[in-house]
Amino acid sequence: MPLLAGGFLELPLGVLAGDGRRRRLAVLGGGILFVLTLLGVASARSFVILLVAFIVFYPASGAFVSLTQAELMDAGPDRQARHMARWDLAGSAGALAGPLLLTAVLAAGGSWRAGYLALAAFAGLAWTGACLRRAPGAPAEAEPGETRPWRERARETVAALRSWETLRWLLLIEVANLLVDVFTGFLALYLVDVVHLSPAVAALAIAVRLGAALAGDTGLIAVLERVGDRAVLRVTAAAAALLYPVFLLVPGAVPKLAALALLSAATATWYPLLQARLYGSLPGRSSVAVTLSSAAGLAGGLGPLAVGLAAQGFGLSWALAGLAVVPVAVLLLPGRERPEA
Fold it and tell me: Domains along the chain?
């Protein structure tokens, strides 16, 4: 319900928010709603309130986070891959810090509610920072975006759906996610039920995956200063095409964890590179990219269900083996770089 209902509420956000001052107000309003949803989860005493809070979290996050990402892309159109690499590094750091925060809260005698209260406090600090900073981009460039009617941006969204250049990156983002977030969701289950490792080793594997992803994001920032983003995408996809079968086939906990670490570092680079390419395919139309990303995310939400159904029908080993086609798609679908005019 949060994915479907919340995703539908988030869907028109980019088109309605637009650019310039209107988008900045949407970011700040979304930040307030973001904090309130976290407080709502922490204070929920019934299933209905909890469900409503999680549903509202989607459009709140879309306004506060996704529109901020769009502003960042507009601020440096010639450095979008580098900006996205830094953005994803912050996300990986947060993914690693989340379990540590919960551990600290529980060790101090708190509950999961206290963890959400802590998150609300951090979100409040982020919102304060958003209020204090200046909106990126030249004011002269922002003005036209404020006066354009939302119907014009809606037409641009429909036109973008007819462009293979844009659809290709949308498709690749969701396909690549099968070997990133979706694979992570099934990782512990696979290690315990199929490989017959202990739950402690499975928990360690999750920590290894998060830590290696953080290392991959950190390395990507340095690599992009010397190598083009398409070259990085090809190399990491080729590496993943070799490392993923090795992870599935190699026996023993230590070799599997080593292969998992290398695989995680390689696949961590995919989202920032592909997302930057999506923005690059829509120059000056970052709001359209936000709306299309929301729509693709709704469709991509079927990924875990598809893997789960395949696991139920054929077994989890075969279901995860099917994901071996993902790095091949990431390697082949981007195609060649078109020469600049």
Answer: 1-151 (no CATH), 164-280+301-332 (1.20.1250.20)
